[in-house]
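Allow me, if you will, to draw on your knowledge of protein folds for a short while. I have a record of one protein: its chain in single-letter code and its fold written as discrete structure tokens. Could you please explain, in whatever detail you think fit, how the structure tokens follow from the sequence? The record follows directly beneath this note:
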Amino acid sequence: MDVHNDFRFVKPLSKGCGMRLSRAGSLDAHCASMQNEHVVRVRVDDAPIAEMVCSPDHLDELAVGRLLSEGVVRSAHDIADVHVDESGTQVSVRLTAESREARSSAARRKAGKNAPRDDMASTIDTCGNAGARLSCALAGARPVTPVPWDPSWVFALADRLGRDTPMHKATFGAHSCMLSLRGRLVCCREDLGRHNAFDKALGHALMHGIDLGSCILFTSGRVPVDMVTKAIRARIPVVASKAVPTNLTLELARTYDLTLICSAHSDSLVVYNDPLGCAERCPAALGRTAG
């Protein structure tokens, strides 16, 4: 796979100045780093397929991860090459001949049976239509394969997030997503949108031959149904979050055997779905008394 290195598109963080007003009535000048808001368009085999608002880094990983999490590709073998243009505003992905034929065959099978549906979402953080999409979002998807997990791995990720990440530390305006493989941090990606950070981490794994089927994905943001849908499509067995799930998230996790851990902080976490019962078998190892 020909991967274009897009680190040169990372812009210095902008500076924004204003006035900080305290509740007590003091008024002081306030200058802080601000997020750069970037727009990138993704083309697949020369066809426009998405336009995303994102942070201007790891654009190739973002595009590849979005294709994976939206079900356009299933593995790195579906992608012939990825190229980011000189301006950093367009990512072009070329699929393999086998992948193009498979997509064409699938489209022909669906013709006349279902209403047309875009292969990919065009914006980050879409909301409000989860219930309507739930029945069709994972059509044909199989349950993930649960893997053993150790709570100490999740606590380590929570500790790392608690120490902050570079972009968030500078701007307080970024979400983070980390991938861990058997307790080892694989990558950490940041973006102004949590869906983009998620997709960047997926893209990194796909482009570097990392087995997502053995990974824990830890996100700083809440976990709505579309985030869990991304994880199931990518065959990720464990999703953990600093934030909270929704009722539909929990329903999908239980239906598709996804291990779901939320409200994960340095001192505690909440296990919402645990197909292998790993949390119940290790209280002694965490220094706690089994209840």
